[in-house]
Design goal:
The complex is a heterodimer of chains A (about 300) and B (about 280).
Chain A: H1 15-40, H2 46-70, E1 82-83, E2 88-89, H3 96-123, H4 130-133, H5 137-162, H6 175-199, H7 204-233, H8 238-241, H9 243-266, H10 275-297
Helix pairs in contact in A: 1-2, 1-5, 1-6, 1-10, 2-3, 2-6, 3-5, 5-6, 6-7, 6-10, 7-9, 9-10
Chain B: E1 3-8, H1 17-26, E2 52-61, E3 64-73, H2 81-85, E4 91-93, E5 99-101, H3 111-115, E6 122-123, E7 129-130, H4 136-140, H5 146-150, E8 156-160, H6 161-177, E9 187-189, E10 205-209, H7 229-252, H8 264-274
Parallel strand pairs in B: 1-10
Antiparallel strand pairs in B: 1-8, 2-3, 4-5, 6-7, 9-10
Classes of the chains: A mainly alpha (about 300), B alpha+beta (about 280).
Chain lengths: ~300, ~280
């Protein structure tokens, strides 16, 4: 595949979008982990599901605000879902920006439902048996549908960048895979952070999350190196791996954000009781560095 | 019937009448008076408020110098990457087969800017994406676009695309047969079979050029964004499913292993097997 060339204009997707990609990734990852915990783990893991659901909705709400603020005409945000020319829903399955708007909507609805069910459970609201719905079949159905949305939502942002003619972004097709790996990893890190701060680090749920994160980090490292290799094969790696962005990518993402948490997970006594907290914070920073480096690589 | 431009760069004298006529008709604001230092080109690039851009390419080779001029514009691609990704439906294909951004529909998401392989689109001061309309309003009233109307050398020709291509091909033959060696390299960029624009089906606004596309800032292989949508999204979903499987297996663990101080080697082995 020859690299994309020519004098392309950059879309000026800067801080709003970098934070959207980062926070949206955490929301998708945290929700996915919560749903999997709901569907496959025992009761010991219930706190994981609750935390995941409780952080997904606020994050996705922030994401919506960020996206609207980024628009040149913010009050026309609903044009994403409704085509005012044809007066029909606006949906293009081949355009990530278009179907992504629907994914955000669907994922937002699932996050909202899971959030409400979790609140009912925590507050012990007994009307209609609401406090038991979350852990029951209703909660599981919502979780299964929401998990599917989370996987698509957590990866469409990569497809969005790939489906362009910009250098770096348009020179590969694996950002969808890389971004969902980063989403899962940062989602786990967010839950570990809250869990470890609230309950100490030694619980079984934290151990399970660390194991899941070790796998996610390993996959992410492979994908990150594959991305650099693919870009190098068409002579387009430099915008991403050289200069200050290279420092962000190699130092921020690979070293501090991926390798350091990996080592800390495998040697959990390195910094005493706060080791999981440090690993989680580094993981989150690494996820942010990844989104920053990739988004800026085609716009500097 | 597709309408378009045939821009013959060999006839361009760099007068910028097209730029001015475009700004006048479309009531586009001036871009300031910055001196670029790049030949006679103070316009710089196409943007949300500049829809024609006269390029001045100075070339010096072994004591010989030449000055290539070319009036760049939206290509009104047969398969347009901007129109393809536009999530609001603001970008439409008109009855003239031109690509038009409806200013009252666009919400300024800027996906079209990222998608356009030619760097044609940018936002205007109102925050919405804009570019050459091929004078949609003039066409609807039976007039030719302002730039073509104003061009004193007929470097910019407007008409039916089929007729323009036939005329352009004849022009290429004439140039190549001429005594001037500079014209031997004349070719068309943006017509069927040109070896450059197949992936987007050719251009309704095409160019006659003398040097390779990159000298004019044009891409060798303009592509559609959608080429990457399925591979990237599918890769993402499969990776997500794999990670979900890994997490689910981690969560099935009953916690038999509580030895947190078991040492790295033990932990690694266990982890690998369980994942």
């Amino acid at each position: 595949m020859p690299p994309v060339t020519g004098n392309v204009a950059d879309p000026h997707w800067y801080w709003w979008i970098i934070f959207y990609f980062f926070l949206g990734g955490i929301a998708a990852g945290a929700y996915l982990i919560a749903a999997l915990s709901d569907l496959f783990a025992d009761r010991a893991n219930r706190p994981v599901a609750r935390i995941g659901y409780l952080i997904a909705l606020p994050l996705i709400a922030v994401c919506g605000v960020l996206l609207i603020l980024d628009l040149g005409e913010p009050l026309r945000f609903w044009h994403m879902l409704w085509n005012v020319t044809t007066n029909r829903p606006s949906f293009k399955y081949w355009s990530p920006m278009s179907y992504g708007s629907w994914l955000l909507t669907g994922f937002g609805i699932c996050s909202g439902l899971s959030f409400v069910l979790t609140l009912a459970e925590l507050r012990g609201i007994t009307r209609f048996g609401a406090h038991r719905l979350g852990a029951g079949i209703v909660g599981k159905v919502v979780a299964a549908i929401g998990a599917l949305f989370a996987i698509f939502f957590g990866s469409y942002t990569g497809a969005l960048l790939n489906a362009t003619n910009q250098r770096v972004w348009g020179d590969n097709t694996i950002l969808g895979a890389l971004f969902i790996a980063s989403a899962v990893s940062t989602g786990i890190a967010a839950i570990v952070l809250i869990l470890a701060l609230r309950r100490g680090h030694d619980g079984l749920p934290v151990q399970r999350l660390e194991r899941a994160d070790i796998f996610a980090i390993a996959v992410e490292i492979v994908l990150l190196l594959a991305l650099v290799g693919l870009l190098a094969s068409v002579g387009r790696a430099n915008p991403l791996i050289a200069g200050s962005l290279g420092v962000v990518l190699w130092g921020g993402t690979l070293l501090l954000g991926l390798l350091a948490p990996l080592v800390l997970y495998l040697r959990p006594r390195t910094f005493g009781a706060v080791t999981p907290v440090i690993a989680a914070v580094l993981g989150l920073l690494g996820g942010f560095a990844l989104r920053y480096a990739i988004i800026m690589s085609s716009q500097v | 019937m597709a309408k378009g431009f045939f821009t013959d760069s060999t006839l361009c004298i760099g007068c910028k009448a097209c730029e001015v006529a475009c700004k006048q008709w479309n009531r586009l604001p001036a871009d300031g008076y910055a001196l670029s230092g790049n030949s006679y080109d103070n316009t710089g690039w196409l943007s949300g408020t500049t829809w024609r851009h006269v390029q001045f390419v100075e070339q010096f080779d072994a004591g010989q110098a030449r000055w290539l001029m070319n009036s760049d514009v939206c290509k009104h691609c047969v398969q347009a990457a901007c129109l393809e990704v536009c999530p609001t439906g603001a970008i439409i294909r008109t009855e003239f087969d031109t690509v038009y951004i409806q200013p009252d529909v666009c919400n300024g998401c800027r996906d079209c800017i990222a998608a356009c392989p030619f760097g044609v689109i940018e936002t205007n001061p109102d925050g919405i994406a804009q570019k050459c309309t091929l004078c949609y309003d003039r066409l609807q009233n039976g007039l030719e676009p302002a730039c073509a109307k104003s061009c004193p050398t007929e470097s910019i020709q407007f008409g039916e695309v089929d007729e323009l291509v036939a005329r352009a091909q004849a022009r290429v033959q004439t140039l190549r047969a001429s005594a001037n060696p500079a014209y031997k390299s004349a070719y068309l960029y943006g017509v069927p079979g040109d070896g450059y624009t197949e992936e987007i089906g050719g251009l309704n606004a095409f160019h006659l050029l003398l040097d390779t596309p990159d000298k004019y800032g044009l891409p060798e292989r303009p592509k559609l964004g959608s080429r990457a949508t399925v591979p990237s999204q599918l890769g993402g979903v499969l990776t997500g499913a794999l990670l979900a499987l890994g997490a689910a297996i981690s969560f099935r663990n009953r916690g038999a292993r509580h030895d947190r101080d078991g040492g790295a080697a033990t932990t690694t082995t266990t982890t690998t097997r369980e994942v």
